[in-house]
Amino acid sequence: MGLSEAPGERDTQALLSRTQAMELRRRDYHVERPLLNQEQLEELGSRSPAQVTLQWRTWFRCSRARAQALLLQYLPVLAWLPQYSVRDWLLGDLLSGLSVAIMQLPQGLAYALLAGLPPVFGLYSSFYPVFVYFLFGTSRHISVGTFAVMSVMVGSVMESLAPDDAFLLGLNSTLDVAARDATRVQLASTLSVLVGLFQVGLGMVHFGFVVTYLSEPLVRAYTTAASVHVFVSQLKYVFGLHLSSRSGPLSLIYTVLEVCWKLPQMVVGTMVTAIVAGVVLVLVKLLNEKLRRHLPMPLPGELLTLIGATGISYGVGLKQAFGVDIVGKIPTGLVPPMAPRPQLFAKLLGNAFAIAVVGFAIAISLGKIFALRHGYRVYSNQELVALGLSNLLGGIFQCFPVSCSMSRSLVQESTGGNTQVAGAISSLFILIIIVKLGELFQDLPKAVLAAVVIVNLKGMVMQCTDVVSLWKANRMDLLIWVVTFVATILLNLDLGLAVAVVFSLMLVVVRTQMPHYSVLGQVPDTDIYRDVAEYSGAREVPGVKVFRSSVTVYFANAELYSDSLKQRCGVDVDYLLSQKKKLLRKQELKLKQLQKENKLPKQAAASKGTSVSINVNPTVMDIESNNDVEGSKAREASAGTELEDTGAWAPEDAKASDISSLKALGLPQPDFHTLILDLSSFSFVDTVCLKSLKNIFRDFREIEVEVYMAACHAPVITQLEDGHFFDASITKQHLFASVHDAVLFALQHRRSGPVNPVLVTKL
C-alpha cells in the first residue's frame, strides 16, 4: 500500500510545483524608477568624460619589462619553446612533420611549375619560409609554403613581365630556356622581397585589420576563381601543348580558346600519363578518407605517384619514346643568397600588394579556424610580420611568395601536430631532399605534376556550392560572391581582386542608403517599442510618433532619413511650412496697408505685439474704420482666454494668443503633438547629421510638434556635445534615457500638469 501511494504523492507535488511555476509567470512585476532625461541621467550617474589613452605614448617608453615584452611579442618562439613538452608533443610533431614533408615535395615541384619557374625553386620555397615562420609565427597548425593560388598569381606576373616571346632566338624561334628561367627567378625573388616588405610594414603599424575588408564570401569566391586559373594553366602540361604567353583581362578566355584550337596537336603519351596519375591520386585519396580511422597517417599517394612515375619514365624512356616532357636537371645543394633588384619594384608594386593581402588573408583565416578549434589565440599583426619575414628572407634566397596550404594544414593537424615544431621538422626533411635526393626526380614527367596540382584543387572547386547556400541565406553575400568570381575570371587575378574589394565596400555604402525606417508602437503592458508594421500587437501611443532608423545617419543618407521621417509621419511638412509662410506674409502686408489707411500711430502698433509677423491677431484684418483701442484690447483678452484653454505651446506668461498657429491660419494640424527620434542605432554622427537633426527640430516645431530624442549611446552624446548641437532651444532635457521615458514625459507635459518624476512600468 505504501509502495503504491508514493508515486501518487510525487505526482501531486510535481503538479503543485508546475502550478506554482505557472502562477509565478502570471504575476505582474513592476519596475519603479525616476523618469530621466539626459541631464538628470548624467547627474544621477555622475557622468564624466572618458579619459583617452594615447597608445602611441607607450611606444616610446623604455624599461626592462617592456623590452622583454617586445622581444617575446616579435619572437614568439622564445615564449612557447621553453614550455615545450617533449614527452607529450614530440612524437606527434615528428609524425606530422614527416607527413607534411611527404606532401610538400610533390606540391613544391608542381607549384613551382605553376609559377612559371624551374621545379627546384619550389623546394627552396618549401624550406626557407617554413623555418622562418617556425621562429616568428603564432599559429601551431598551419603549414606555410607553396600554395596554388599564390603560385598562379606569381605565374601571371611572370607571363606578363617575362613572356616566352621575349626569349626567342633566331629565325627558327628557338626558346632560350636558360635566359628565361634566370630572368623569371630574378623577378620572382624580387617580388617575394617586395611582398615581404609590404607584410612586415603593415604588421609593424598594426594594420592586420586590413583583412577584415575581405569578407568570407569574397575570399572563397576569389580562391574558387583562382582554382579555375590554376586548372587552365595546367592544361598545356596535360596535353603537351605549347601555348602563347598571355596576361591581363580576358587572358583566361583566350587561353581556353587556344587550347581548344591546338587540341589536335596534343601529345597522346602526355595526356595518358596525366590521366593515369590523376586516377591513382584520386583513388588513394578516397582510400585515405575511408580508412582514416584505422591509419596512423594518410597514405602518401602523391609521393608514391611521383616515385612510380619517375621510375617508369626512367625505365621506359617516356621522353624519347612518346615525347613526354620531363622536369629535367635538378641541381643539388642550396643556392647562395641574391640581392633583389630595386629597379623592378615599380613594375611589381601593384601585384606585390595584391599577393601580400591575399596571402595574409588565406593564412590568417586558416590560422583562426585551427586556433578556435584547439583553444589558443592567433595574433593577426604578428602573423602578418611572420609571413612577411618568411617572404622577405625567402626572396633573398631565390624563393617565390608563399602562404599556407589548406590541404597540408589539415594533414598537419590530423596526424597529431601540436606546435610549430612540426613545420620545422618538415623543412628539415625538405632540406635533406634538396641536398641529396633532388636529382633523383630529373625524369619525372611534368604531366604528373600537373595531375597533382589539378587533383589538389578539389577543396577549392567544391566552394562552388556556396552559391546554393548563399542563395538561401544572404542574397547580398551571394552578389559579392558572383561579382568576385566573374571579375577574377574575366579580368585576371590582380584586377579581379581590386574590383571585388571596391564592389564589396560600395555594397556596404549602398546598404546604409537603403535602411529600414519604422514607426514604433508600444507592446501592451510593457515598456518595449517595436515596428507596428511587423508587430500587430504593438500600438502607437495616441498623439506620439516614435521614429527609428536601422542604421546610423551620416552624410550619405541624412537627406533620405529626413524625407522618410516626414513621409512616415503622414504629414506634408514642407507644404505646411510653405503655406504658413505665405499666409503670414499676406497678414503682414494687409496689416501694413490697414495701418497706412487708418494712420495708426506707431506706438499703438508696437503695443499690440513686439513681433508683427508672428503675434498678429487675425481679427485685425476685419477691423472697421472706426476701430478703437478698447475693442482691440477686448479681442486680445478673449483670444488670450482661448489660448489658456487649448494651448500648451505658448509660454505661461504669454499675454496674447499666438495667431500664427496652424489652426488660426486655417491649415490642417498634425494628428500628433510629439515626435520622438529613437537614436539607439546611431554609432556616430557627423556635421551633416547634426544639421539634419537641427532642421528636424526646427521644421516640426514650426508645425506645432515638439521633438525629443531617446536611447542615445554615450559616444554619440559626446559627439553631439563636441558639435555644439545643444543650445538654448535644444538642451539635454530633450534627450531621454529610453523611448518609454520620452513617451511618458510627452504625455504628461501635454496634459499641462505636473510631471510625475517616477516611472512605473508594468512588466
From TrEMBL:
SUPFAM superfamilies: SpoIIaa-like
Every STAS domain range: 534-746
Name recorded for this polypeptide: Solute carrier family 26 member 6
Gene Ontology molecular function: any one: formate transmembrane transporter activity
Predominant subcellular localization, coarse grouping: membrane
Bilayer topology: Multi-pass membrane protein
UniProt keyword annotations, A-Z: Membrane, Transmembrane, Transmembrane helix, Transport
GO biological process: cellular response to cAMP; cellular response to fructose stimulus; cellular response to type II interferon; epithelial fluid transport; establishment of localization in cell; intestinal absorption; intracellular pH elevation; mannitol transmembrane transport
One Pfam entry name: STAS
Record CDD domains: STAS_SulP_like_sulfate_transporter (cd07042)
GO CC annotation: basolateral plasma membrane; brush border membrane; cytosol; sperm midpiece; vesicle membrane
Superkingdom of the source species: Eukaryota
Annotated compartments: Membrane
Gene expressing this chain: SLC26A6
The UniProt record lists the keyword Membrane: yes
TM annotation in the entry: 109-135, 191-214, 263-287, 348-372, 384-404, 416-435, 447-471, 478-510
